[in-house]
Write a structure and sequence with these properties.
The protein is of the alpha/beta class. The protein has 13 helices and 15 strands. It folds into 2 domains: 207 residues, Alkaline Phosphatase, subunit A; 126 residues, Alpha-Beta Plaits (2-Layer Sandwich), CATH 3.30.70. The N and C termini lie close together (8 Å).
Length: 349
């Protein structure tokens, strides 16, 4: 029996008054997701602050601290060899040293931001910069350096002085001035050498094909030596997953549920969950022949836009996991399985 693991990034949430004090996941009409929970087993596991830390522990059985910038550099195949530091880059607006992470970026603003990166790249010329932007104005940067800056991490509120940016201050100011207020701030920095040392310790890696549009999920897959497939979004991801199940076990990462949470619109999050469910249901006949597991890596408030550390739900259907009788797939408690042992638990035949 083939295995399909679906991770709905940041799909857990807080209770929302307009949904009769239910979460968007609980209030959504979602026959496919609820069917997996009702026909199989459901419980909880330990959420993490970020997707890459959740995936590293899920897939290896142990917690590993590899910086976000390094993981995404793997995902985008940027150079991170000896003497290079990798950073994740996120759009933000900075007023009176207060950082507002900017997730509601428009297509025009994203285009202006990419032009600003090209225009101001020379301010990093002495460090041999390699930078690649991707969806939402986000990006990854690697530079030659021997020092790692400890900078604020999104999505929570933060304060930042210009001098905190060190070698990136002129670049960040230049981008902000070129775009009329949108800066591109680095965080999650790390040395590629540290990641190589961590990789040598890892001996257990599952045989799964990782499908995602996110450099974070793809980066974990590449870091662990797994096959990866980059897609444009969840619709293409579901289609590719269904096809690859003919010969492989599949890990499908859906990033959009986290992205919409940061935009602070609970109704849009509910609608997106329903849209994702309908897309997955299109392939239900194919998925019926597989063992299907649903995971969530962390909570993400669609009210504040911030990540929430919490117990997160999982569900699994197929094989020995039948007739669990749960009332649906949402944040409803259940037996907790430690994250490090979850994969072995849900993949038992």
């Amino acid at each position: 029996m083939r295995k399909l693991i679906i991770l709905l990034d940041g799909a857990a949430d807080e209770r929302i008054p307009i949904f009769n004090n239910r979460t968007p996941l609980e209030a959504a009409h979602k026959d496919f997701l609820d069917g997996v929970a009702r026909e199989g087993k459901m419980g909880t596991t330990d959420g993490k602050d970020y997707t890459h830390t959740f995936l590293l522990e899920l897939l290896t059985g142990k917690p590993y601290d590899v910086p976000r910038g390094v993981i995404e550099a793997y995902g985008l195949e940027l150079p991170i060899g000896e003497g290079r530091v990798a950073y994740r880059m996120t759009p933000a607006k900075v007023n009176d040293h207060n950082v507002e992470w900017y997730y509601n970026i428009t297509c025009d603003e994203e285009m202006f931001l990419q032009r600003a990166i090209i225009k101001n790249r020379s301010k990093l010329a002495g460090m041999d910069p390699k930078i690649l932007a991707y969806h939402g104005g986000k990006g990854v940067l690697t530079v030659r350096a021997d020092h790692i800056l400890d900078l604020p991490k999104p999505p929570g509120p933060a304060r930042l002085n210009g001098e905190d940016l060190g070698i990136f201050e002129d670049f960040a100011r230049g981008v902000r001035d070129s775009t009329g207020g949108i800066a591109l701030l680095p965080w999650g920095g790390g040395l590629g050498k540290v990641a190589v040392d961590v990789r040598r310790e890892i001996t257990k890696v599952p045989d799964l094909v990782v499908i995602s549009k996110s450099p974070s999920a793809l980066g974990v897959g590449k870091f662990l030596g797994m096959e990866t497939v980059r897609v444009q979004g969840f619709k293409e991801g579901a289609k590719v997953a269904a096809k690859r199940l003919d010969g492989d076990d599949v890990f499908l990462h859906v990033e959009e549920t986290d992205d919409v949470s940061h935009k602070c619109n609970p109704k849009n999050k509910l609608k997106l969950i329903e849209e994702i469910d309908r897309e997955l249901a299109r392939y239900e006949d194919r998925f019926r022949a597989c063992q299907v597991a649903l995971l969530i890596d962390h909570g993400a408030s669609s009210v504040t836009g911030e990540h929430m550390r919490m117990k997160v739900p999982y569900a699994v259907r197929g094989g020995r996991w039948k007739d669990g009788g749960a009332d649906g797939f949402h944040e409803n408690g259940g037996e907790n399985v430690p994250l490090g042992t979850l994969l072995d638990t849900i993949l038992e035949d």
